[in-house]
Amino acid sequence: MTRQQHLGWFLARGFGPHGWGHDYLDWNYDWTRPDLYVESARALEQAGVDLLIIEDAPSLGSPETIDLRVRQAFGGPKHDPLLLAPYLFAATQHLGIVPTVNPAAVLPYTGARQLATLQHLSGGRFGLNLVTDTGSARHFSDAPPLGHDAAYDRAEEWLDGVRSLWRSWDDGALIADPGAVGPGGTRTGGRYADGGLLRPVRHRGEHFAFDGPLNALPFADGADGEPVIVSPGGSGRGLAFAGANSDVQLALTPLTERSVRDYRAKVHAAARASGRALEHVKVLFAIKPVLVSSPQEADRLVAASANPDDGTLWRIAEQQSSDLETDLTALDLDKPLPTGLFGDHVSHGSIKRLVGEHDLATTPLRVLLGGLARLGRIADRTGWVGTAGEFADLIEELGEWGNDGVLLWGDLHPVTVHRTLDELVPILRRRGILRTEWADGGLRANLRAF
Ligand SMILES: Cc1cc2nc3c(=O)[nH]c(=O)nc-3n(C[C@H](O)[C@H](O)[C@H](O)COP(=O)(O)O)c2cc1C
């Protein structure tokens, strides 16, 4: 039987000048204003996309590599996506909005209150993409950055703390009884809340110390009414975090049956170890469609990408230098990377994306970058170039392997949304893969509907 799949959209370059250098900038949208996102969010909702995730990093990165990050706007500037969310809620009715939050940058009490406010404002359509990047540490204190796993430990402590604040109003604490209207129209006996049922919450942890209770309303459905937690870390520690804590895990992995099943099994093992229901953790595999109108056009694009010129390789090196906060443009294209080039703060996932299955010690940089330049066909699972029908085949096949959904990865612009979805959505609907109606109860209810 065809299995329905969830669709997410990932605005991969954050709330910034994403799309810089592309022709669609000529549409004259201003990335600092809401219209671009509002129009795109409406189109996503119309298409049946469950959630829009907005990438973020609070920092422009280390002082030595700032120019690499801003030169082509690969790594900034970026505005705070939490503050964009209300514009998108106001323009839609069902779409989940999920900005990225880094626990290093937000105190648990402040975070719990802001996120609760957004969850109430949106009628339960809010979520946060919880990340553990430590490259921004210097903006928040003079303590040295945490190591990779320690940053996950901190994120877990942060989330536990935030949840304890969200749960600091016991059942019955919110009364909201206006009382009775007596003779003469005077109101008597009303009571809004019972302060005796608010828990003090005293948190003294390794990374945070704060007291409650939270000065914000509790959620009507208890824990099921809390903002949805999304996580993207692909390391062993990242998958363990997802299984224990997340409603949605964003997965970047080759889309072979074995790797998809392995990835899901690791997340599920961690969920099981934490006593969670496996169907409460949805895994969305990232796909970056390059849609073309015919298989022949796809073959032409793929063939042309096999021999990238040096200019193309330098452009990729610039983008990678921004992502890895490591200056690849200063290296010799024909030599392997120097040992110890990447600091501990650099994402394992990003390094793996560059290196792939190559031997880091012996492979020239040209070959690594050439690997990123090379396009492949979706039809044989070597890349992302294909027709809408071929993408629908992939999404359907993922469902046959037990998968929950896919994450469409790209800029957010009406042009990119329509280019990606105009043909794909009708095919998915005809095959019964894509939702045709919304659940009642916000983002978590939509995620749990299938
Ligand atoms: C789909 C996806 C989305 C991501 N979004 C962000 C993001 O918005 N901000 C960020 O700092 N890192 C983001 N990351 C990177 C990981 O969260 C980051 O590498 C993490 O801190 C450590 O990951 P690791 O467990 O893979 O080593 C994303 C990764 C993936 C695969």
Automatic annotation (TrEMBL):
Xref: SUPFAM superfamilies: Bacterial luciferase-like
Binding site for FMN: D56, T100, H148, Y152, S235
Keywords for this protein: Flavoprotein, FMN, Monooxygenase, Oxidoreductase
Domain Luciferase-like residues, every copy: 36-340
Listed InterPro entries: Diverse_substr_monoxygenases, Luciferase-like_dom, Luciferase-like_sf, NTA_MOA
One Pfam short name: Bac_luciferase
Gene3D superfamilies listed in its UniProt record: Luciferase-like domain
GO molecular function annotation: monooxygenase activity; oxidoreductase activity, acting on paired donors, with incorporation or reduction of molecular oxygen
PANTHER family listed in its UniProt record: ALKANESULFONATE MONOOXYGENASE-RELATED, C2H2 FINGER DOMAIN TRANSCRIPTION FACTOR (EUROFUNG)-RELATED
Similarity remark: Belongs to the NtaA/SnaA/DszA monooxygenase family.
Protein name: Alkanesulfonate monooxygenase SsuD/methylene tetrahydromethanopterin reductase-like flavin-dependent oxidoreductase (Luciferase family)
Organism the protein comes from: Promicromonospora sukumoe
Taxonomic classification: Bacteria, Bacillati, Actinomycetota, Actinomycetes, Micrococcales
